[in-house]
Design a protein that fits this description.
The chain is an alpha+beta fold. The protein has two domains: 18-65; 66-180, Head domain of nucleotide exchange factor GrpE (Nucleotide Exchange Factor Grpe, Chain A, domain 2, Roll). Helix content is 55%, strand content 19%. The chain is built from five helices and six strands, in the order αααααββββββ. The strands form two sheets. It has a three-stranded antiparallel sheet with strand order 1-4-5. A three-stranded mixed sheet has the order 2-6-3, with no helix packed on it. Helix 3 packs antiparallel against helix 5 (98-120). It is elongated. The N and C termini lie far apart (129 Å).
């Protein structure tokens, strides 16, 4: 044995110095904590990504659903003109002229077909005589005094029908509403 070997105690080959073991023990929980934190971060990022994806899909669906909103709003003017023409055609219906009667029937059929096409696209026509007035869906153009209490606050006449597109108001119905008689 040489001089250096005698002074240092022999350690088994598989044992590590005490300082190294303590360092590894203090580092091991730190590495484990970092791993858990990384797992949590990954879960949060994955959930955030999934939420973003779902939100974008919802927004895309809404954009597609209401993409025709401007076009349909413009077409509602045509509906108003059809209904105005049909409303004033009552004078002509009284005449027994077959040509006039066929012409009016053609206008009525075109109007009906036009409304059915709008309904297929998600348009719902609103504003009917006898409905309760709803300021979120109706615009009162006039109020008429009524004696019957059940007609107070109800629609007595429709100037222009309104419409909803998939439940969203496109155009309020313009209506005449009954109010309590002042006398």
């Amino acid at each position: 044995m040489n001089k250096n070997e005698a002074e240092t105690p022999e350690q088994p080959e598989d044992s590590k110095p005490v300082e190294d073991t303590e360092l590894e023990q203090s580092a091991a929980p730190s590495a484990q904590e970092e791993l858990e934190k990384a797992k949590q971060d990954l879960l949060y990022q994955r959930a955030d990504f999934e939420n973003s994806r779902k939100r974008l899909l919802r927004e895309q669906e809404i954009a597609i659903r209401f993409a025709n909103e401007k076009l349909l709003s413009e077409l509602l003017g045509v509906v108003d003109l059809f209904e105005l023409a049909l409303g004033s055609s009552n004078v002509l219906k009284d005449k027994k002229d077959k040509d006039v009667s066929n012409y009016l029937m053609g206008i009525e059929m075109t109007h009906r077909q036009f409304i059915q096409t709008l309904e297929k696209m998600g348009v719902e026509m609103i504003g009917k005589v006898g409905e309760k007035f709803d300021p979120s869906r109706h615009e009162a153009v006039s109020q008429v005094p009524v004696h019957e209490s059940e007609k107070i606050g109800t629609i007595l006449q429709v100037a222009n029908r309104g419409c909803l597109l998939h439940g969203r108001l496109l155009k309020p119905a313009r209506v005449v509403v009954g109010e309590a008689d002042a006398s």
